[in-house]
Amino acid sequence: MADPDPDDSNEPLQARVERVLGLIRPAVQEDGGDFELVEISEAGVVQIRFLGACIGCPSSEMTLRDGIARNLRERVPEVTDVIAVN
């Protein structure tokens, strides 16, 4: 059986967000970093916490903006913003 489509709007919001994050995670882990989903607000703001080598890394802002946020907004329309928290 094929993996469910991350764009499948019949799936709960958190599950769709987690699925998209799972697609991005391996690339981040290759560089010794990681991230976790902290919360999704009712307004669609996704909070991410960087872990490992991502903490304090100058590239983490680019990873957030160009990797995580862009993919989430494209694949999960309810996502309005993505922010990093400590």
Helix content: 25-40%
Instruction: Report the CATH superfamily.
Output: Fe-S cluster assembly (FSCA)
Structural class: alpha+beta
Average pLDDT: 89
Distance between the termini: 38 Å
Beta-strand content bin = 15-25%
Radius of gyration: 13 Å
**Order of adjacent strands in the largest pleated sheet:** 1-2-3
Briefly, what CATH class?
Answer: Alpha Beta
Describe this structure in words.
There is one protein chain. A three-stranded mixed β-sheet has the order 1-2-3, covered by helices on one side. Helix 1 packs antiparallel against helix 2. It has one domain (19-85): GMP Synthetase, Chain A, domain 3, CATH 3.30.300. Helices cover 40% and strands 24% of the residues. The longest helix has 18 residues, at 13-30. With 86 residues, the protein is α+β, with helices and mostly antiparallel strands. The chain is built from two helices and three strands; from the N terminus they run αββαβ. It is globular. Helix 2 (60-75) links the parallel strand 2 (45-52) and strand 3 (81-85).
